[in-house]
Inverse folding.
């Protein structure tokens, strides 16, 4: 049970250059592979600049990462039945909150790990499905260990999009869901959104 | 056999705690965690212990240089190799079991009693098996979640497996010596230190008990399936919506 959230986020940030990669190949494995080199190159090259100005990095992450993620779908999965009666706008608001939180952490983790981690994308395995698939990666840590990080992709009208990150078997969606759904049911979605925005919410996955 | 006594001690303590359980009526996962009331008591007990354990782990983490800390981790991990080996054989994973023996020999010798993980540098893969995983692959798939005092999250199956594993593991044997408590304590501190980074996450969670259970449970499934568990059925997460209200919430196709 290693909650290597920083690592997850660092790796997830690899999606940052997703837009560019899509021109080459748009199957999930290629997406992850192509993006990897690009994002590392960018952050490693401009490490000093981004360290001095983390907001620039956040901006970059936001711009490039978002098109590759289906954050709304993640938000729905996380809210589950708690999202049933709250209406579209609230779900959007919640999804934005989660996204901001993630981008903030992605960027921090990127700065922290950038020059040290290596990512190895494993080839597609049997479970490729027309609508749902998993991309498996292995991350080499500075200490020499290896952490397995998987991404769940599903097919949308705009192409394949990632909606879950799974680190050592621990799903971001499931873990957040089991915290947030009861909290929304107990305190209401506004209170949860407020908590997210205030930066108190620090869940692990 | 003193080891056995300490195990019995832990079991007795569990029963004692079970006695004071029952005030908690929350039931967040009746299927996997029917003993939640009891488990929450033990969780609270462990959190209490942590008030003492954590500062020690923090101190250890500060004093020990990173490479030394890694060495201690390697040392204990290496001692688990025989348990992994036996269970690989029990599961019919013979090829992998050879690699485990290789690792153990290399690390115990060239790696100086396991402090240096030379085997990984040589590209010998690492596996981790135990009796709980073996029982799961033999068909004992569903087992109740069970929190142990001191040791934390487990299931009835995995707890039983761990106890049996200690009878033939070097950790079990080595710890029979005069300084066995010392070793247990070092291992405990080392393990605790490795989770320090996650404290903030756990403490600020809406329900720390559920967070710990979720994380442990999912990671355990992952181990049982050797890193390749069946993909989750995410649609189930939306099913409530689909069946009852709001056609809009069909989500991402």
């Amino acid at each position: 049970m290693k909650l290597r959230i920083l690592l997850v986020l660092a790796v997830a940030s690899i999606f940052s250059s997703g837009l560019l990669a899509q021109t080459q190949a748009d199957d999930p494995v290629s997406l992850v592979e192509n993006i990897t080199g690009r994002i590392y190159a960018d952050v490693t090259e401009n490490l000093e600049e981004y360290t001095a100005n983390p907001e620039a990095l956040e901006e970059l992450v936001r711009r490039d990462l978002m098109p590759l993620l289906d954050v709304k779908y993640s938000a729905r999965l996380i809210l589950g039945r708690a999202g049933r009666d709250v209406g579209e706008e609230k779900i959007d608001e919640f999804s934005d909150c989660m996204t901001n939180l993630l981008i903030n952490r992605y960027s921090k983790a990127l700065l922290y790990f950038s020059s040290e981690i290596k990512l190895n994308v494993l080839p597609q395995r049997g479970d490729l499905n027309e609508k749902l698939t998993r991309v498996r990666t292995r991350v080499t840590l500075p200490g020499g260990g290896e952490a397995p990080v998987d991404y769940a992709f599903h097919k949308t009208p705009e192409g394949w999009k990632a909606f879950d990150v799974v680190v050592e078997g621990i799903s971001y969606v499931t873990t957040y869901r089991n915290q947030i759904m009861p909290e929304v049911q107990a305190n209401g979605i506004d209170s949860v959104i407020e908590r997210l925005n205030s930066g108190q919410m620090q869940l692990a996955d | 056999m003193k080891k056995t006594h300490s195990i019995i001690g832990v079991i007795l303590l569990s029963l004692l705690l079970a006695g004071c359980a029952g005030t908690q009526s929350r039931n967040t996962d009746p299927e996997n965690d029917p003993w939640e009331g009891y488990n929450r008591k033990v969780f609270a007990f462990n959190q209490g212990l942590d008030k003492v354990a954590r500062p020690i782990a923090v101190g250890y983490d500060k004093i020990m240089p990173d490479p030394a800390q890694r060495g201690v981790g390697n040392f204990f991990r290496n001692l688990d190799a025989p348990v992994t080996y036996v269970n690989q054989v029990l599961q019919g994973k013979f090829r992998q079991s050879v690699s485990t023996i290789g690792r153990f020999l290399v690390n115990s010798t060239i790696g100086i009693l396991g402090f240096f993980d030379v085997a990984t540098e040589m590209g010998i893969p690492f596996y981790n098996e135990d009796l709980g995983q073996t029982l799961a692959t033999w068909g004992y798939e569903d087992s109740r979640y069970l929190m142990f005092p001191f040791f934390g999250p487990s299931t009835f199956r995995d707890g039983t497996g761990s106890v049996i594993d200690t009878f033939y593991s070097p950790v079990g044997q080595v710890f029979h010596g005069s300084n066995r408590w010392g070793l247990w304590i070092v291992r405990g501190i080392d393990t605790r230190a490795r989770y320090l980074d996650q404290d903030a996450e756990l403490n600020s969670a809406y329900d720390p008990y559920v967070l710990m259970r979720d994380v442990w449970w999912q990671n355990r499934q992952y181990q049982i399936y050797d890193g390749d568990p069946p993909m989750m059925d995410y649609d189930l997460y939306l099913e409530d919506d689909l069946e009852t209200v709001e056609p809009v919430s069909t989500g991402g196709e």
Summary: The longest helix of chain B spans residues 36-63. The mean pLDDT of chain B is 84.
